[in-house]
Structure formats: structure tokens, C-alpha cells
Amino acid sequence: MTEEATTAALFKVYEIVARGIDLKGNYKRLRQEAKKLKAIRDAIETEISKDRITPATREWIAKVKMIESEVRELKTKYKNEMGHPWRLVRIWAYARLSTDMAEKYNQVHSLWEEGNLKREELDAELPEPVRKRHAPRIEENSALHMAVQEILSFLEDEQIQRIGVWGTVGTGKTTIMQNLNNHEQIAKMFDIVIWVTLDMERFADIEENARRISEELKEKKYLVLLDEVQENIDLNAVMGIPNNQDSKVVLASRNRCVCYEMEADELINVKRLSPADAWNMFQEKVGHPISSPLIKPIAEQVVKECDGLPLLIDRIGRTFRKKGKDVSLWRDGLNRLRRWESVKTEGMDEVLDFLKFCYEELDGNKKDCFLYGALYPEECEIYIDYLLECWNAEGLIHDADELVDNTNVFRDARDKGHAILDALIDVSLLERSDKKKCVKMNKE
Q1: Which residues, at least 6 apart from 313, have a Cβ–Cβ distance to it below 8 Å?
Q2: Fewer C-beta neighbours within 10 Å, C or N terminus of the chain?
Q3: Distance (Å, rounded) from C-alpha 388 to C-alpha 117?
Q4: 303: buried, middle or exposed (CB in 10 Å: 19+, 13-18, 0-12)?
Q5: pLDDT digits (tens, 9 = 90+) for 88-99
């Protein structure tokens, strides 16, 4: 054996012996790192449900569990080795065990770093406790504002779990619920807020939905906001919402009996606005034109036609705002508003009048485009690009005689489609969805 080989062999022996001497240190470091790895695995498994776990994360968890088993085996070997008195003949076994522990420490540390990155990604992907919703602004000290404040006071009462908000169509129940959802106090009071617009026909795969929701809400202080409740439902069976003393449910319905059947502890009746409040709201929506002495008497009659319904005042106010100070346009608008004979359906006549008025105000192809959108179910998210393509295919937003340059047909049709879309949104026949690229049919 050459001198160089002898030196290398001796160095290797020294390295093994040195590691053997640091057996206790390697054991301690491995235990601490394994503890950190287990903690981050537990945190990740707690924060995500089994249904949402990605394949990559599932694979990482499997690796962690495997290495945890290997660490336990090394701990057992360590205890066995330390049970023997120190003998020179065992130094090689000590050294080998120490080397295995050092290598295992590196593997555990690598998995911990990977888990730490996954934890950061998970925190970024998790939804906000409260998802803000588009909500019409309500004036301070208005009837709607006071309703929101009353609900907040009920939510702070430990003895109250369910609150019912009821009233006819157009009184602003959904506006109250939206403003409640976005209120800064709500985010401080609850871990998570869930908004649901009830449509019993869409509750497919009830058992699976209920199981997943129940899993998500486990051990959380939650607030459930149920809009458009039309009949009594078992929240646990249908939606998986468990009975939790610290959590609350606020439901909105047109029917007071539904609130009773849903076992609401407190009821809030959302009534039509007083003449003074209705006039103030209309003034705010219309702005400066209403100050004209020629416009004001007509405006008072318009407000009277709205019958104290915030929904009508808001939408019709926007429409009349565009008429400026042209008295003839105001008179024509009032006549149009009065023209329609009400359909005598309880709670619906004013809203039908309003819809007819807004529809009559449309010109050109806007009426056909609105009717096409009305084919979609309520609350259905309609992709704007898809809707424009459908309008174009139906010939609603292009005219071959007007477009000489064929290369611009698609671009011009889309531009016209966006203009019509904005016009329908302006008069609130369509509304922007919470999804940026979608719209939906307007509702109270």
C-alpha cells in the first residue's frame, strides 16, 4: 500500500471515529429536526382538507411519514448502543450509527425546507376569511344602515344564533346582507364568513357537499349569510353546517313564516322607505338636475311611483340622472313609468313595473341583447366573452351592410357588444359579477 493510500485510509478511520465520538450530538440534532418536520406536517394537514390536497403535497406527506419511521428506527438503535458500556470494539458501530444519523439529519432538513415552502404557498392560496362582495353604498342613519347596525348588535349577543331578515321584493334585503358581509366588525368577530344564495334545484350531490362543508367548518367560528331563502331547509343535512354555539346564521327571505320555520331567534322587518327617506335617496342618485324648480315637481311624482322601494329608487334614479335638466325628457320618463298596468302579483307589481320601464327605455338591439341574457338562470355567472360571441352569432351586434372592411368585422362587433353590455349594466338590467370576467342578471 502506498503512503498516500495509507494516509487516506487513516483519515477515513479518523473521520468515522470522530463521528462516533459525536454520536450524542448527531442524535440530539436529528431529534430536534424531526420534531420541526412533524410540526410543519401537522400544520399543513390541519390547514388543508383531504379533498383539496394536491398530488405533490400528498407525495411530500408520504415521504415525511416514511422518514419519520426511519428516524424512529435510528432512535431505537441509539438506545440499544447506549445501553452497552463503552468498549473499543463498539466504536465502529457507534461511528456507523452516528454517520447514519448525520445523513438522516440532512434528509429531514431538506424535507423541512420543502414543507416550509409549501406552507408559505398554502397561506397565499387559502381564501380570505371574508370575501368582499359588491355592495351598494348605504347612507348613514338610513333605514338600511340601521338594519345593519341592529344585526351587528344581535351577532354580539351570545344567546342569539339565528337572525331572520324579511320584507317584500325591492326593500333592500340583499343590500343589507352585502353590507353586513363587508362590515369591518364581521372580520373581527368570525373566523370565516360564508355567503350562499339559495337555489334548492342546484343542490346536487347533497351528501358530498354537506360532508365537505362540515369538514371545513370544524372548530371554526363562522357566520353564514343565506340570501333568497324561499323555504325551510335543514342546514346540517343540506349544507353540512353544524350546530355551533359560537357561530351564527343570518337569513333573508320574502316570507316571515320561513324565518320562523328556520328557528330565527330575532326578526328584522325591512320596510319601504318613508316619503322623506325616499326623496333623500332619489336626490342623492339624481344629483344637481333635481334642484331645478321645473324638474322638482316631476321628480316628486317619480319618487311616488317608486313606492318607497330602495331597489326602484336606486335604479330609476340612475336612469333619470341621464335626462339632465331637459323637462320634456323628465315628463316623458314619468309617463313611461306610469304607462304599464301593474301585474297584480303580491310583492312583485312594483318590480315588474320597474323592469318594464327600464326595458322600454332601451333602444336598438339592446332589447334583444337583454332578452338573450334573460335566458340564463338567476345568479348564473355569464362569461362576457362567451356572451358577446353569442350576441354576434345571433346577429345582434353587427350589420353586414355597415361593415365594408371585413377585416374589422369581429373587432367592431366586440366593441359594439361591450357598449351594449355597459348600457345594460348602467340601467342595472345586468350587473357585474364578483368574478371580473363575468356578468349576471340583476336581482334584489
Answers
A1: 273, 278, 281, 282, 285, 303, 306
A2: N
A3: 42
A4: buried
A5: 445 667 778 888
Cα 217 from Cα 241, distance rounded (Å): 7
What is the model's pLDDT at position 266? Answer: 93
Asked if residues 20 and 94 have their Cβ atoms less than 8 Å apart, the reply is yes
Task: Return the residue matching grid coordinates 404557498.
Answer: 121
How far from each other are the two terminal CA atoms of the chain, in whole angstroms? 93
> Distance between alpha carbon 394 and the CA centroid of its chain, in Å?
34
For the segment 303-342, what is each residue's pLDDT rounded down to a tens digit? Answer: 988 888 888 888 888 889 888 889 999 999 888 887 654 4
Q: How big is the CA angle at 441 (ends 232 and 414), to the nearest 5 degrees?
A: 155
Please identify which residue in the block is written with the cell numbers 428516524.
71
Query: In DSSP terms, which residues pair with 383 in a beta bridge?
Result: 438
Residues written for the chain: 444
| SS3 assignment for the chain | CCHHHHHHHHHHHHHHHHHHHCHHHHHHHHHHHHHHHHHHHHHHHHHCCCCCCCHHHHHHHHHHHHHHHHHHHHHHHHHHHHCCCCCHHHHHHHHHHHHHHHHHHHHHHHHHHHHHHHHHHHHHHCCCCCCCCCCCCCCCCCHHHHHHHHHHHHHCCCCCCEEEEECCCCCCHHHHHHHHHHCHHHHHHCCEEEEEECCHHHCCCHHHHHHHHHHHHCCCCEEEEEECCCCCCCHHHHHCCCCCCCCEEEEEECCHHHHHHCCCCEEEECCCCCHHHHHHHHHHHHCHHHHCCCCHHHHHHHHHHHCCCHHHHHHHHHHHHCCCCCHHHHHHHHHHHHHCCCCCCCCCHHHHHHHHHHHHHCCCCHHHHHHHHCCCCCCCCEEHHHHHHHHHHCCCCCCCCCCCCHHHHHHHHHHHHHHHHHHHHHCCCEEECCCCCEEEECCC
Specify whether the CB–CB gap between 313 and 304 falls below 8 A: no
* Residue 120 CB burial class (10 angstroms; 0-12, 13-18, ≥19): exposed
CB 439 within 8 A of CB 382: yes
pTM for this one? Answer: 0.55
> Which amino acid type is present at position 410?
F
Cα–Cα distance, 195 to 133 (Å, whole number): 9
**Interacting residues of 235 by C-beta distance below 8 A, sequence separation 6+:** 224, 241, 249
pLDDT value at residue 345: 36
